[in-house]
Design goal:
It holds the Pfam family Pyridox_ox_2. 32% of the residues lie in helices and 33% in strands. Strands 1, 2, 3, 4, 5, 6, 7 and 8 form an eight-stranded antiparallel beta sheet that branches. The two termini are 24 Å apart. The radius of gyration is 20 Å and the shape is elongated. It is α+β, with helices and mostly antiparallel strands. α5 (171-184) packs antiparallel against α6 (189-198).
Length: 204
């Protein structure tokens, strides 16, 4: 059951999260109605997801047979162990995270200028330091490559986001957990505490 306190509806929050992520999971259905999930790089631009690949790949065969797809992006933050709550009892451990799930239809991009725009977004995300010529549909050095690569646009019909950072906790438990994470100081604990404070229902 989706808990409403974890639901994020602000478009800018969702867009900001997706702009920081490079990896997502594409759900398709094969010609014989078997589901498949494929991990791949993506960009989110102007309300659509984009990915690229081979013109004759398995993903493309699935999409040709059935253009209805799902797409999910998630980032795990801190793991919350049971002993943060009770030193002995094995009550449920959990994890804090951000996730976005979409369903809609996928379509091949045929316009070379849109292909170039999407692939430039990939370069900006995956190679932010630069060191390359901007992909231009009118540049003969890129025209052949743009024609040879498949770029797919996923147009979401539904899109939902869940950011779980202890919004369901009472204030004293919420603050206690922040202190425990700060004391532990593992890789994403500081970022988790920052997110807990950002989405804290007591100071919204």
């Amino acid at each position: 059951m989706r808990r409403k306190e974890f639901t994020i509806e602000q478009e800018e929050e969702i867009t900001e999260f997706l702009s920081t992520q490079t990896f997502g999971f594409l759900g398709t259905v094969s010609m014989d109605n078997k589901p498949r999930v494929t991990p791949l790089n993506f960009v989110y631009d102007e309300g659509c997801f984009y990915f690229h690949g081979s013109l004759a790949g398995e993903k493309m065969k699935h999409i040709k047979a059935n253009s209805t797809v799902s797409f999910t992006v998630a980032e795990e933050y801190s793991l919350i162990p049971s002993y943060f709550k009770d030193p002995l009892l094995a009550c449920p451990a959990t994890a804090f995270f951000k996730s976005v799930s979409a369903s809609g239809h996928a379509e091949k991009v045929t316009d070379l200028k849109e292909k170039a725009r999407a692939l430039n977004r990939f370069m900006e995300k995956l190679q932010p330091e630069g060191g390359y010529l901007t992909i231009d549909a009118d540049d003969p050095r890129y025209t052949g490559q743009l024609k040879a690569v498949a770029v797919v646009r996923i147009v979401p019909e539904t899109l939902s986001a869940k950011f779980k950072f202890g919004q369901n906790l009472q204030q004293d438990k919420h603050e206690q957990l922040q202190e425990q994470l700060e004391q532990r100081g593992e890789a994403k604990d500081a970022a988790t505490v920052e997110m807990m404070r950002k989405y804290c229902p007591f100071h919204s």
